């Protein structure tokens, strides 16, 4: 396994930031006009202007500058700007935002000696956008109508360059930092009337996103936190809800693996038979983070109307961002994500042959030693099975970029390699980025029959 390095201390950086934010007089003053803060809470439709050198139009319209596929664009330098936390099934009204200013970042860097600024190469990449400009609430989700070429327009948009090793490394570090547990001081209530000190257990529910922004606010990256699970050598307050989401999104039929498993919904009709309508409804339940992740995305778009928004995530966070990216045609880069195609089908998101995966800027980065990414962490002999995780799906949407440490470095397939730290230190830092390809002839849940 890869040896430890200074990267192991990166999660401490966010804690420094939060402590500094609490102590700084500026921490409790909104860095935006009051109308913008109101808009986030849903009380106003005002917009915050920004100086965009490239994308002054709405994200739902066509960019002013016509780009070409593969066109090299100026690098983007982004720094951590906000932390967002939205409650889930237990606290559905909880919605908080923590704002970080440049001075907070600078003081933290002086204390830690580590940079919290990330530089990413950018190039023009094809995506599909719905022709209907009022698609905010639905995107490409279609339950009653078919999706075909008449449903979208093809555009070339700025996106992270996933062929660039340093850019992939910077995106992975953004995700690594999103696992850091956050402290209570400095949070703004965006919904409801919440008091952290009197609301015991609020951190054990919901989803968290870290928002990185360029200096001119023209480009944003949202990193969504992945699974906090003891199976990966850690844990976390949200681990119970994370497991429910993993088992609903990435299992064949609500984690009804065998007779010893209770399952997280009642869609199994006996043996390897599953009620298709029931399982589709289950992935839209209040326990699923997909809808919450969408709310986080909308909040960021309201804060920065017209900005380019990119998504990234690791593990469960990667699965959620991939579903969002496919829903709205947003450039997305994930790390070690379980097969997300099954969940996308159940959400009625576009699939081949209606679309071509090469037309979506959706990239899954992983490696051959990770049993969750490879879709082999299942069955009675697996660690996932004994930990209560039904990680049965293996097929991915978009394109996969697969490193091969098993063949090249004699790594063993091991659940511990799913930890992002090991992937960064042992793979991303030392290897060139592999080519990204569409998975061919991949099939999920072949033993199951859906009616």
3D architecture notes:
- The protein is an alpha/beta fold and 451 residues long.
- The protein has one domain.
- The chain has helices at 10-23, 34-40, 102-112, 165-177, 239-249, 276-282, 290-303, 316-328, 341-346, 371-374, 383-386, 405-409, 420-428; strands at 72-86, 95-99, 117-130, 152-160, 187-191, 207-214, 219-224, 268-270, 273-274, 308-314, 332-335, 362-367, 399-403, 436-437, 449-450.
- The strands form 2 sheets. Strands 1, 2, 3, 4, 5, 6, 7, 10, 11, 12, 13 and 14 form a 12-stranded mixed sheet that branches. A 3-stranded mixed sheet has the order 8-9-15.
- Helix 9 (341-346) links the parallel strand 11 and strand 12 (362-367).
- Helix 1 packs across helix 3, helix 2 runs antiparallel to helix 7 and helix 4 packs antiparallel against helix 13 (420-428).
- The longest helix is centred in the first third of the chain and has 14 residues, at 10-23.
How helix-rich are the residues, as a percent range? Answer: 25-40%
- How many angstroms does the end-to-end distance come to? 44 Å
Class per helix and strand makeup: alpha/beta
Summarize the biggest pleated sheet.
12 strands, mixed
User: How many strands in all?
Assistant: 15
Uncertain residue ranges: 1-63, 181-185, 193-202, 233-238
Number of domain units: 1
Question: What amount of the residues lies in strands?
Answer: 15-25%
């Amino acid at each position: 396994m890869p040896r430890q390095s200074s990267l192991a201390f990166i999660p401490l950086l966010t804690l420094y930031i939060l402590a500094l934010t609490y102590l700084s007089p500026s921490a409790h003053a909104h860095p935006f006009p009051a109308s913008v803060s109101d808009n986030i809470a849903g009380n106003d439709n005002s917009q915050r202007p920004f100086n965009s050198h490239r994308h002054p139009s709405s994200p739902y319209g066509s960019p002013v500058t016509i780009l070409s596929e593969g066109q090299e664009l100026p690098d983007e330098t982004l720094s951590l700007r906000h932390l967002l936390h939205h409650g889930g099934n237990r606290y559905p009204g909880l919605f908080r935002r923590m704002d970080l200013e440049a001075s907070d970042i600078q003081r933290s860097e002086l204390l830690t000696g580590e940079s919290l600024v990330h530089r990413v190469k950018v190039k023009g990449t094809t995506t599909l956008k719905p022709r209907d400009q009022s698609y905010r609430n639905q995107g490409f989700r279609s339950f009653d109508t078919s999706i075909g070429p008449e449903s979208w327009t093809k555009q070339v948009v700025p996106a992270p360059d996933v062929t660039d090793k340093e850019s992939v490394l910077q995106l992975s570090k953004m995700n690594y930092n999103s696992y850091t547990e956050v402290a209570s001081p400095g949070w703004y209530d965006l919904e409801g009337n919440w008091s952290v000190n009197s609301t015991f257990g609020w951190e054990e529910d919901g989803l968290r996103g870290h928002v990185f922004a360029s200096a001119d606010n023209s480009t944003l990256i949202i990193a969504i936190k992945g699974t906090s699970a003891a199976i990966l050598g850690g844990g976390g307050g949200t681990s119970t809800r994370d497991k429910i989401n993993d088992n609903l999104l990435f299992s064949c039929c609500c984690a009804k693996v065998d007779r010893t498993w209770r399952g997280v919904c009642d869609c199994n009709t006996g043996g390897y038979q599953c009620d298709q309508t029931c399982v589709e409804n289950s992935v839209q339940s209040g326990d699923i983070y997909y809808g919450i992740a969408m709310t986080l995305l909308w909040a960021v778009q309201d804060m920065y109307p017209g900005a380019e928004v990119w998504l990234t995530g690791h593990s469960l966070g990667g699965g959620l961002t991939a579903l969002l990216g496919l829903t709205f045609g947003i450039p997305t880069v994930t790390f070690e994500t379980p097969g997300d195609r099954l969940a996308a089908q159940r959400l009625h998101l576009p699939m081949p042959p209606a679309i071509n995966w090469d037309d979506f800027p959706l990239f899954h980065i992983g490696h051959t030693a990770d049993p969750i990414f490879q879709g082999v962490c299942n069955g009675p002999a697996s660690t996932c099975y004994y930990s209560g995780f039904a990680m049965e799906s293996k097929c991915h949407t978009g394109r996969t970029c697969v490193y091969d440490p098993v063949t090249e470095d004699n790594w063993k397939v091991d659940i511990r390699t799913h930890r992002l730290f090991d992937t960064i230190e042992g793979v991303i830092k030392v290897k060139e980025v592999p080519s990204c390809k569409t998975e061919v002839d991949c099939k999920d849940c072949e033993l199951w029959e859906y009616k």
